[in-house]
Design a protein that fits this description.
149 residues; mainly alpha; 0% strand; DNA-binding protein
Length: 149
């Protein structure tokens, strides 16, 4: 019997949802990258050619602080003001993410996806949870929720 990485080898061990979710997140990133960001030209669609977007700035400061990215020669160390600047951008980034998620949920519903399918994609347990999340997001983002039915 061959082992499937998505299934435990012991039939009496429950699946680990966090591991399954992590594998799905990785697979999702790889799929989108391969299909929509494989070339320099495709990747340029996502970045402003002369300015760093708020989410990129927050991520950059975080990566530099954590050591996930290295400073270039002559580049100043991340200081307290850089951290404060990144923290100041968090509400803007959160608002942008809320708007993106609300819009994506509306488009998914417009393409005929069920709340169950959407719940699976979001890692939520029930269709009701997905629908409630959509309602909260549309209220926070100030988007139109009429297509939520």
């Amino acid at each position: 019997m061959t082992s499937n990485p998505d299934q435990p080898t012991d039939p009496f061990t429950p699946p680990q949802p966090d591991q399954a979710r992590a594998r799905r997140v990785y697979a999702s990133l790889m799929r989108i990258t391969e299909r929509h960001a494989a070339t320099d030209e495709q990747r340029r669609r996502q970045a402003h050619p002369t300015a760093v977007g708020p989410h990129e700035a927050v991520r950059l400061v975080s990566f530099l602080l954590s050591g996930a990215a290295r400073l270039h020669d002559g580049e100043p160390e991340v200081d307290q003001a850089d951290i404060t600047a990144a923290l100041s951008l968090i509400p803007l980034v959160r608002g942008e993410m809320d708007e993106l998620e609300a819009g994506l949920l509306q488009m998914a519903r417009g393409r005929g996806m069920t709340w169950q399918e959407i719940a699976f994609g979001l890692g939520l347990g029930t269709p009701q949870a997905a629908r409630q999340r959509h309602e909260r997001l549309t209220e926070r983002a100030g988007t139109d929720a009429e297509s939520a039915d």
